[in-house]
C-alpha cells in the first residue's frame, strides 16, 4: 500500500524514532550500556541537525518534516542526558516529546492521508516515551534515595525496587511499602502530577485508535473498492 507524501515522510520519521526509542529503552534498563551508547545518540542528533540546516531553504521540505526532525533530535538528546545522569533535563525533553506525540495522534486522526498503521505506531511510541519517563524517575530515586516503610534505606543497586516505586507513584496507587527520602520528595510529587496529565492524554488517544478509519485515498486510486451499501447487502 502506497501512501501520500505526508504519510511516507511521517512513516520514515516514525521508523527512525522507533529505532531510537527501542535503543533508549535498552540503555535505561541496562545502566552499564549508557556510556557506550551515549556517543551514538549525540552523533545521530548532529546528523539530523545537519539535515535540518541543509534543507532549511528546500521548498519540498514541509513544516512537519522539520518538526519531526527536531522531535527526533530532542529524543536523542534526552537519551544522552539519561546516560550521563542529568535527569531533570532528560525528563523535560521527554515531556515535550510525549506532548508532540499526543498531538501527532490527534493530527493522524483528523487526516485521511495517513494510514491507520501509522496512527497506531505513533500511539505505541507515546506509551514507550511514558515508560522512559518512569525509568528516568526511577533513576532519580536511585540517586536521591528511597526508604522502606520502616525507614531502612533501599540499596542503590536494587534497580527493580526503584522502578516498582516509580510505577506505583506514576499511577498514584501509593501502597505505602516504600517512601521517598526528603531529597526525593519533589521528584515523587512531580511524578504523580505527570501521571495524571500524561495518562489523561493517553485516554484521549485510545478512542481514536478504536474508531474505524475511512479508506485511504491511495487504496482508492489503486482500485481497491470501498465498501458500500451493495457490498454490505451481499454480505
In short:
The chain is mainly α and 235 residues long.
Defining key terms:
mainly alpha; two-stranded antiparallel ribbon; 9 helices; 72% helix; globular
H/E series: HHHHHEHEHHH
Enumerate the spans where pLDDT stays under 50 for 5 or more consecutive residues.
Answer: 222-233
The average pLDDT is 80
Our count of helices gives: 9
What is the distance, rounded to the nearest whole angstrom, between the alpha carbons of the first and last residues?
25 Å
Structural class: mainly alpha
Radius of gyration, rounded?
21 Å
Biggest beta sheet attributes: 2 strands, antiparallel
> How many E strands?
2
Q: Please tell me what the overall shape is.
A: globular
How many distinct domains? 1
Helix content: over 70%
Order of adjacent strands in the largest pleated sheet: 1-2
Kindly estimate the percentage of residues that lie in beta strands according to DSSP. under 5%
Describe the structure.
The structure is a single chain. This protein is an all-alpha fold. The protein has one domain. 72% of the residues lie in helices and 3% in strands. It contains nine helices and two strands. α1 runs parallel beside α5, α2 runs antiparallel to α3 (63-84) and α4 packs parallel to α7. The longest helix is centred in the middle third of the chain and has 29 residues, at 116-144. The protein is globular and about 60 Å long.
Question: What layout of secondary structure does this protein have?
Answer:
Elements: H1 5-29, H2 34-54, H3 63-84, H4 87-110, H5 116-144, E1 146-148, H6 159-170, E2 178-180, H7 185-210, H8 217-221, H9 229-234
Antiparallel strand pairs: 1-2
Amino acid at each position: 500500500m502506497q501512501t501520500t507524501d505526508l504519510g511516507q515522510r511521517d512513516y520514515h520519521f516514525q521508523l527512525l524514532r522507533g529505532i531510537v526509542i527501542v535503543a533508549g529503552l535498552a540503555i535505561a534498563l541496562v545502566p552499564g550500556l549508557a556510556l557506550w551508547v551515549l556517543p551514538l545518540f549525540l552523533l545521530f542528533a548532529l546528523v539530523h541537525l545537519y539535515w535540518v540546516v541543509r534543507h532549511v531553504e528546500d521548498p519540498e521540505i514541509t513544516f512537519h518534516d522539520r518538526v519531526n526532525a527536531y522531535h527526533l533530535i530532542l529524543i536523542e538528546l534526552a537519551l544522552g542526558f539519561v546516560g550521563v545522569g542529568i535527569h531533570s533535563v532528560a525528563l523535560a525533553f521527554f515531556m515535550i516529546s510525549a506532548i508532540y506525540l499526543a498531538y501527532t495522534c490527534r493530527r493522524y486522526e483528523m487526516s485521511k492521508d495517513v494510514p491507520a498503521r501509522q496512527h497506531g505506531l505513533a500511539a505505541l511510541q507515546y506509551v514507550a516515551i511514558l515508560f522512559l519517563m518512569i525509568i528516568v524517575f526511577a533513576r532519580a530515586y536511585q540517586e536521591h534515595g528511597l526508604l522502606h516503610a520502616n525507614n531502612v534505606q533501599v540499596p542503590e543497586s536494587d534497580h527493580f525496587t526503584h522502578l516498582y516505586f516509580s510505577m506505583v507513584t506514576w499511577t498514584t496507587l501509593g501502597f505505602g511499602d516504600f517512601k521517598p527520602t526528603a531529597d526525593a520528595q519533589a521528584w515523587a510529587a512531580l511524578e504523580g502530577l505527570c501521571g495524571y496529565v500524561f495518562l489523561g492524554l493517553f485516554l484521549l488517544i485510545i478512542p481514536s485508535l478504536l474508531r474505524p478509519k475511512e479508506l485511504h485515498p491511495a487504496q482508492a486510486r489503486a482500485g481497491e473498492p470501498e465498501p458500500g451499501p451493495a457490498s454490505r447487502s451481499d454480505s
